[in-house]
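DATA CLASS: polypeptide
GOAL: derive structure tokens

***
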Amino acid sequence: MSELFSAEVTPAAVAEVTTTGVKKPPPGRSPGQLAWRRFRRDKAGVISACVVLFYFVIGLGAPVISWLYGKDPYTHYGLDRPGLLTDTGIPVKPNGGIDGEFWFGLEPKLGRDVLMQLVYGIRTSLLIALVVVFIVTAFGAIVGITAGYLGGKADYFIGRVIDVLLAIPSTLFYLAFMPIALALFIAPGKEAPIWLRVVSLVLVLSVFGWTRVARLLRGQVLSLREREFIEAARVSGAGSRRIIFKELLPNLITPILIVATLDVPAMVTTEAALSYLGVGMVEPTPDWGRMIHDGGDYIKADITYLTFPGIALIIFVLAFNMLGDSVRDALDPKSHR
């Protein structure tokens, strides 16, 4: 008998007993806790999240890194100090001038520090990509939910607008309308300031970016608006605003988050491509696309300068895409079955 009372009782073996004598089941996990648990088990997702976090930390801490490193992305070190560049503008030392002072070497012709160009280039790409993704996600969510919930003529009109925008080659639109967007604010022959280029780039990228979110959420709302909990909300007298924000929107957080996660690397590559083509960011703003464009002119003489931004862009896009896949699997485990 004494052994019975001395036996160890674990929480898993015995549930909590209430004052009424009814056993209370152990508390369950919330959907967020279950998603976090599934995400932690995904090694590829955790590694990609660490890589993405590293890029964000580097981008946000660029001024601190510049202060610790003792250099900035704008000074022409190769031109100011003799012996660093040849007469043709190529770094004198091998591997693009990599040494203990310039860790990633020097930029051909101008002699700027490549490491600082990369670090500040992260800030440029992430700033533009995050602002664009926020705009297209918010606007696309509003349009998609409105079309799916109202239906009828509103859904038909919005659907046709989305079809027209999807039929237009986005890259050609960017190339054609970026100069037009800049010409609306500056006089002919004058160089556009950096802030104006950023604003114009964000607006032009946002024109096409919202269609994907809107079409996805429209389909989700069309399937949700006939569910029992929506009908129950209508019968109880709930208005459209309450149904959208209290009933529909909480069920749309998962697809919105997944699309936003996958859109960030897409916008980063699009911004880099536009800078590469000469309609994005220009000198002297540090930018990966511009670095890749300039590096192509010295691919035979100094391939190192092209290698660093290319590898940095590939790693970032790959890590963010893997993170998006892992977030999708964690939030919606049925999606990969």
Observations:
- The two ends are 52 Å apart (CA to CA).
